[in-house]
């Protein structure tokens, strides 16, 4: 596995855990504002996906 994928995996796991804790905190302590929890959930999924695409494109560009 290339080094960039290892770093991506490590940082993605950290990002998802922190985003999940953020969303859980919003739901736990502000049940009337639960719709605010969607933003960290969406960012928790979208940011690692975008980072993977950027890393993949960078690796392809550097391989040429």
Walk me through what this model shows:
The protein has 64 residues and is mostly helical. It has one domain. It contains two helices and no strands. Helix 1 packs antiparallel against helix 2. The mean pLDDT is 94.
Distance linking N and C termini: 19 Å
User: Which class best fits the helix and strand makeup?
Assistant: mainly alpha
How many strand units?
Answer: 0
Q: Helical percent range?
A: over 70%
Count up the helices.
2
Q: Helices and strands, in N-to-C order?
A: HH
The number of distinct structural domains comes to 1
If you average the pLDDT, what whole number results? 94
Low-confidence stretches: none
Residue fraction in strands: under 5%
* Shape descriptor: elongated
Largest sheet: none
- Rg, alpha carbons: 15 Å
List the helices and strands and how they pair.
Elements: H1 3-29, H2 38-63
Helix pairs in contact: 1-2
């Amino acid at each position: 596995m290339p080094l960039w994928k290892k770093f991506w995996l490590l940082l993605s796991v950290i990002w998802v855990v922190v985003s999940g804790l953020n969303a859980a905190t919003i739901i736990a302590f502000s049940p009337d504002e639960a719709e605010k929890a969607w933003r960290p959930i969406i960012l928790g999924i979208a940011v690692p996906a975008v980072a993977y695409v950027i890393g993949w494109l960078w690796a392809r560009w550097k391989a040429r």
